[in-house]
Amino acid sequence: MVQVETFAQFGVVFLLFALGLEFSLPKLRVVGPVAVLGGVLQIALFMFLCGLTAALCGAKLSEGVFVGTFLSMSSTAVVSKFLVEKGSTNALHGQVTIGTLILQDCAVGLLFALIPVLGGSSGIFGGMMSMGRLLLVLSIFITVAYMMTWSFIPRFLKLMIQLSSQTNELYQLAAVAFCLLLAWCSDYLGLSLELGSFLAGVMISTTDFAHHTLEQVEAIRNLFAALFLASIGMLIHFKFLWNHVDILLAAVILVIIVKSIVITAVIKSFGYSIRTAFIVGLSLAQIGEFAFVLLSRASHHHLIGGKMYLLLLGTTALSLVTTPLIFKLIPVVTQLGILMRWFPSESGVQNELPLQEKATMLDVYNRTL
Known about the structure:
Blueprint: H1 2-21, H2 25-30, H3 32-56, H4 61-72, H5 76-85, H6 92-119, H7 124-151, H8 153-163, H9 169-188, H10 193-205, H11 210-234, H12 238-243, H13 245-268, H14 274-283, H15 290-300, H16 306-321, H17 323-339, H18 346-350, H19 352-358, H20 361-368
Helix pairs in contact: 1-5, 1-10, 1-11, 3-4, 3-6, 3-13, 3-20, 4-6, 5-6, 6-7, 6-14, 6-15, 7-10, 8-9, 9-10, 13-14, 13-16, 14-17, 15-16
C-alpha cells in the first residue's frame, strides 16, 4: 500500500507538470477573478454551510468546519486528466476549472495550518501566524519562479537541446529532474507537491520548447498516472463499504449535488453563462486526493472520530470513482439543456469571453491584489 501510494505521488506530479506545459498564461489572467475570488468564496461557503449544519444537528462546530474544508477540495489530478483527454484545457470552462483547482492547491497549506486550531492543539493566534507565514512563502516562491522563467529557463533548455542533439535521453532526464526539483522545493516550503510541479510546467510553457518537453514526459506521465488511479481503489475499505453501502451512496450523491449547486452559483455570480457555470460545477463535484491528507492530519489531531474517518474516506474514494461517469454525462446534459433552452447555444458561449475581459470584475480583482 505504501509503495503504491509513493508511486502515485509521482503520477500526480507528472500529471500536473504536463498540464502546466499545455497551459495558457494569457487565458489564466482572464479567468483570474473567478479563480481567485471565486475559489476563496467556495471554500468559505462550504465551511459556513457545514459548520451551520453541525451546529443545528448538535455536533461539534469545529468538526463541521473541518468537513466543510474537506468537501471544498476537488481533484486536480483526476479532473485535469479528463480535461486533457477531451481537449478542453483551453476552453473557457476548462480554464475556469483549472484556475479554481490551482487556487485550491495554493490553499492546502493554509488549511493544514487551520487543522491544529480546530483540533484545539493550537491557539487562534498561532494559526493566524502560520497562515501568514505560508502566504509570504507562497508569494516569494512564485516571484522567484517568475524571475527564473525569463532569465534561466530558456538558456537551460537550449543548452540541453544542444547537448542531446543525437539522443533525447539527456533532455528527458533534465525535464523530469526540473519538475521533481520544483515539486520538492514547494513541498519543503510547506506548500504542495502539485503546486510546484504545475509551476514547473508553466515556466517551460512560456518557452519554445513546451511541445518538445511534453512529448518527452508523456509516456512517464501515463505510467505513473495509472498507478495513481489504482491507488484510489486500494483506499476503499470494502468491509466498511459493504456494511454501510446505503449511507456511503447517499453521501456521494449528496456531495455531488451540493458541490455542483454551490460551485455553479459562485461561477454564475461572476457573470459567466449558466452553461459554463454548470459544466464547471459538475467537473469539480468530486472530493480531491488532498482530502486524504487533510483527513489523516485531522485524525492525528483527534478532530474526527474513527467512524467519521472511514465514512469520509469511503465517500472521497467513491466520488473519485464516479468522476469518469460524470464527465461522460456532461455533454449529454449540456445538449439536453440547449434543446430545452436552459442553456445558451454554442455561439452565445463563444461570445462570452470578450464580455468577461471587459467586465468590471477584472478591475475589482486588480484592486484586491
